[in-house]
Amino acid sequence: MVFLILKSLFGSTTLSLFAACLFVVTCLLSLILIFFRIRTIIQSQTETETETEAERGLSLGTEIQTRLESQNEIIRYLRRNQETQLLELALSSRDFSEQDYERLLSLDNETPTKILQRASQVEINRLPVRVISKNEELRLAQNQRFCSVCLSEFKENDVVKTLPCFHFFHQSCIEKWLKIKKKCPVCDSWI
Question: What sections of the protein cross the membrane (predicted)?
Answer without folding.
Answer: 15-36
